[in-house]
Amino acid sequence: MLLGMRLKEVRKSKGYTQNDLAQKIGVSKVTICGYESGKRVPSLDTFVQLLDILEVEPNYLLGRDTLIGEDISEYRIKVSREDIKILKEIRNNPIVYNRFLDNTRGIINFIERKIK
User: Fold this and answer.
1) Does the N terminus or the C terminus of the chain have fewer Cβ atoms within 10 A?
2) Coil, helix or strand at residue 99
3) Cα angle value 19/37/12 (rounded, 5°)
4) Can you list the pairs that 82-87 forms with residues at least 24 positions away whose Cβ atoms lie under 8 Å?
5) Average pLDDT taken over every residue of the chain
């Protein structure tokens, strides 16, 4: 779950341990671990506390942040930071990049078979 990954990322960047954060919002360390692993979802009140303590925007934790926004007629394109990282890495490898251009669906199928 993106919320968990980003919560962990922000918590660490602020220098908090799971226990530190748990104490600040009045839950157990196990609860924070559950949020970060995606096994638990914070209540709305807890989510707001996390936003305040970690000084982060809700859209970032929810994975709704937009790096690129382009309005073209009736649709909108949005790309997250994680997607930009992946695209940059692919672009930095000319062989992989060219294979993606030539056969995008085939490369995706190949990756899916490898990770299963």
Assistant:
1) C
2) helix
3) 45
4) 82/2
5) 84
Nearby residues of 8 by Cβ (< 8 Å), 6 or more positions away? 36
- pLDDT for 79: 67
Q: Are residues 15 and 58 in the same domain?
A: yes
Distances (CA, A) of 73 to 27, 41, 62, 78, 97: 47, 36, 27, 15, 29
Q: Of 52, 50, 84, nearest to 66 (Cα)?
A: 84
pLDDT in tens, 37-56: 989 999 999 999 999 999 98
Alpha carbon distance 20, 11 (integer Å): 9
* 70 domain residue, yes or no: no
